[in-house]
Q: What sequence folds into this?
């Protein structure tokens, strides 16, 4: 009975937020196709690069916004969701891409990843820092508008949630929500979305319902803060290790292919810090499809089975990040391939 309740509530959270699956064959053109030409969607040659420049987020403007009502998260889902147990015979996997951005730089946009996913109609979830949404307004709107993509909250400025408290903790979550909602509002104001009489404007989720902790770190206070704002905390069970510069596309592909199982959540990066991720996708996706896998958003994955929920956040094993922080990981020598994945995942140079 508990399992049925959790699955039903999970499905309800996703559907209320607008995460129904959209069949491309049933629509004349997506919002992305209506509002941006192929040239406008194409990535710039240097757009993936990080700019070492501090940019202040206009927090006052974000605070002034009225937030969307938060839906209560049931007790059984108020932890860290790592994967989903699926009914026998179902082979679903969720690809996720983080769009991290710290206060000290402007991160990139890896259009090669986005273009490949669009070309092959692959559904995916992007976890975006609120600051990234603010500094990449046009790209943010394109991701929000795409019916094959889902956008989740990755904190405002990619801070370690074990070290943020009080009002700062609340705002790291709430202001990222506000940045998404402002971007959606700007999207829906586009002249290209004025629908002819008798037709409906395509649905776009009003708010994010998923959250991913920066650096994959949290504590009890952080988990509570996220759930109290109506968000499900999403971790992963497959680490690409793509922030490590020396990690080749073949190595990324080998890791994913050897560790994926039905219900897996895979973490990668699309902010220019996912080295060789775009080159790895053509090595990964055809093989998983050949094995019978279907690619879905995290929201769809959650609605398809029973989420596996942990009481804490960790990379690969419980407690493996307890004494680690991004600023020190580069100095540590990994002891195994698993440790190497963990180091690569957490190391975000400012």
A:
């Amino acid at each position: 009975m508990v399992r049925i309740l959790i699955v039903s509530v999970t499905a309800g959270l996703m559907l209320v937020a607008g995460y129904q699956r959209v069949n491309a064959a049933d629509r004349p053109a997506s919002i992305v196709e209506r509002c941006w030409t192929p040239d406008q969607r194409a990535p710039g040659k240097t757009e993936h690069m990080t700019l070492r420049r501090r940019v202040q987020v206009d927090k006052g403007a974000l605070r002034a916004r009225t937030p969307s009502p938060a839906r209560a998260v049931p007790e059984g889902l108020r932890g860290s969701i790592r994967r989903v147990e699926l009914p026998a015979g179902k082979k679903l996997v969720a690809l996720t891409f983080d769009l991290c951005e710290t206060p000290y730089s402007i991160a990139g946009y890896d259009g090669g990843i986005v273009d490949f996913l669009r070309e092959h109609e692959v559904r995916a979830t992007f976890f975006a820092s609120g600051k990234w949404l603010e500094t990449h307004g046009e790209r943010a709107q394109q991701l929000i508008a795409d019916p094959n993509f889902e956008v989740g909250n990755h904190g405002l400025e990619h801070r370690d949630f074990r070290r943020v408290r009080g009002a700062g903790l609340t705002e790291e979550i709430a202001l990222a929500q506000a940045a998404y909602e402002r971007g959606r509002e700007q999207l829906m104001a586009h002249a290209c979305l004025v629908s002819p009489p008798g037709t409906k404007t395509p649905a776009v989720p009003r708010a994010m319902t998923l959250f991913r902790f920066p650096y994959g770190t949290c504590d009890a206070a952080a988990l509570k803060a996220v759930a109290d704002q109506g968000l499900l905390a999403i971790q992963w069970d497959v680490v690409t290790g793509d922030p490590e510069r020396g990690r080749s596309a073949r190595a990324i592909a080998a890791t994913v292919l050897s560790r994926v199982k039905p219900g897996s959540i895979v973490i990668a990066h699309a902010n220019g810090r996912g080295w060789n991720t775009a080159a790895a996708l053509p090595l990964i996706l055809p093989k998983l499809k050949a094995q019978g896998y279907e690619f879905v958003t995290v929201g769809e994955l959650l609605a398809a089975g029973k989420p596996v929920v942990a009481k804490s956040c960790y990379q690969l094993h419980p407690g493996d990040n307890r004494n680690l922080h991004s600023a020190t990981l580069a100095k540590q020598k990994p002891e195994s391939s698993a440790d190497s994945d963990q180091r690569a995942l957490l190391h975000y140079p400012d």
